């Protein structure tokens, strides 16, 4: 039986079971590319930039959903053609005792609001640790690099994000999984 409210919602919707797409609506298929049938029984992993991102975001969202039953963030996702884009994801578990067993999620393309900035793996690590409030010396210890090397990475990040100072960079990065 078709559900027009789900099917024609103006936001991308998916029904997930254990992080596998059971059904999606038209807007979800438009956002990620292809047809609704292309996503049926597809592991959500295929829409993440990497397995590491899938694991990291999954672990964080599972913990939050265990506490609240709900999760939201902004993250980089991958379209069917391989293009990366910024996406706002929101999910609600229908099985609070086992949050990933069954849930409804929405996905919105926010790439016009937040252009994608290409970062190297090391730049991403430095950005994440900077957002956590670590000093250049603390980041250097954690990554096994000198604090001067960390300052060089931060300088590149400032340039890439068009920020003048570290607090401005952190403000641009904060609240966004990298």
UniProtKB/TrEMBL annotation:
CDD domains: LuxR_C_like. Residues 112-177 form the HTH luxR-type domain. Keywords: DNA-binding, Transcription, Transcription regulation. GO terms for biological process: regulation of DNA-templated transcription. InterPro entries: PAS-like_dom_sf, Sig_transdc_resp-reg_C-effctor, Tscrpt_reg_LuxR_C, WH-like_DNA-bd_sf. GO terms for molecular function: DNA binding. It comes from the Bacteria. This is Transcriptional regulatory protein UhpA. The gene is uhpA.
